[in-house]
Amino acid sequence: MATKHEQILQHIEELEVGSKISVRQVAKELEVSEGTAYRAIKEAEAQGLVSTIERVGTVRIEKKKKQNIERLTFAEVVNIVDGHVLGGREGLYKTLNKFVIGAMKLEAMMRYVEAGSLLIVGNRYQAHKLSLQHGAAVLITGGFDTSEEVKKLADELQMPIISSSYDSFTVATLINRAIDDRLIKKEIMMVEDILIPLKDSYYLNTNHTVRDWHRFVESIGHGRFPVVDENMKVMGVVTTKDIVGYEYDVPVEKVMTKNPITVMARVSVASAAHMMVWEGIEMLPVVDNHRRLLGVITRQDVLKALQYIQKQPQMGETFANQIMNRFREEKGERGIYFRGEITPQMTNHLGNISSGVLTTLVSESGSMALRQFKKADMVPENITVYFLKPVQIESTIEIYPRVLEVSRKFGKVEVEVYHQGTLVSKAMMTAQVIER
Question: Is pLDDT above 90 for 403?
Answer without folding.
Answer: yes
